[in-house]
Q: What sequence folds into this?
């Protein structure tokens, strides 16, 4: 059995890596299509950028237990989130997204929490529209992901795992989270900046439509982006702080990693 496992596991990891690569390609395509940018060179550059910009490439992309839990789920969240904002969603695709919704809800608490927040955001956004779009699918995905999360939290494994962590108050976790968020930024984000800036240089020569460029001043735009990212990082890390009282591993922070790269 061990010989079969050691023979098959590298092949499984290889093909699963290809699957995640296709998910990344689809996500980058959807993001660029949202801004009406159609450039194969830019898609290739951004895929490379996102891959190299991973806080820990080996831990996130080439560790099967990690990639199935965090990498795949995060990429699926991005794809579903963008698809649900498009005017047309084929019925077959709506049905297909049922399985990922259950999968995401049952993979881990932070990832499931992020997905649930994204779905709730879409519901609130639809309530402001005269003609809501895909509201039935969004509600279905929300219910399924919540049920999967409840099943995960009530599982024997989750109960045993929680016994290894201390219980602290929300206030103590909030105060501690300032320190841990700063530590996580210093540990994972800052070391990646030099290589990401280097990889960003070719983007200056890629033609981008004027409709994709924000007319606001660049400095103000950067300040707003940094502020929003800091809030997102703080909120996501807070879940990890409350549960583990420590910074998240590179794999657990992949959703924030992806937000940072965008």
A:
């Amino acid at each position: 059995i061990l010989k079969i496992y050691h023979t098959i596991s590298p092949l499984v990891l290889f093909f699963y890596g290809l699957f995640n690569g296709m998910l990344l390609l689809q996500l980058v395509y959807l993001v660029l299509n949202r801004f009406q940018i159609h450039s194969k060179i830019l898609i290739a550059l951004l895929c490379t950028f996102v891959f190299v910009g991973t806080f820990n490439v080996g831990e996130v992309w080439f560790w099967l237990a990690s990639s199935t839990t965090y990498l795949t789920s995060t990429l699926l969240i991005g794809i579903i989130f963008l698809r649900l904002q498009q005017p047309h969603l084929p019925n077959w695709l709506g049905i297909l997204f049922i399985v990922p919704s259950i999968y995401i809800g049952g993979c881990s608490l932070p990832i499931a929490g992020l997905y649930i927040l994204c779905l709730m955001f879409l519901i609130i956004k639809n309530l402001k529209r005269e003609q809501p779009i895909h509201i039935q699918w969004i509600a279905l995905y929300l219910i399924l992901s919540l049920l999967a999360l409840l099943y995960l939290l009530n599982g024997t494994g989750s109960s045993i795992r929680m016994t290894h962590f201390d219980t602290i108050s929300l206030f103590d976790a909030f105060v501690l989270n300032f320190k841990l968020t700063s530590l996580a930024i210093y540990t994972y984000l800052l070391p990646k900046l030099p290589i990401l800036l280097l990889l960003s240089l070719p983007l200056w020569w890629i033609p981008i439509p004027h409709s994709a460029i924000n007319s606001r001043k660049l400095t103000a735009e950067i300040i707003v982006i940094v502020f929003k990212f800091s809030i997102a990082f703080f909120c996501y890390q807070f879940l990890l702080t409350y549960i583990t009282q420590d910074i998240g591993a590179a794999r657990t922070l992949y959703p924030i990693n992806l937000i940072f790269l965008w």
User: Anything to note?
Assistant: Residues 229 and 259 are 7 Å apart (CA to CA).
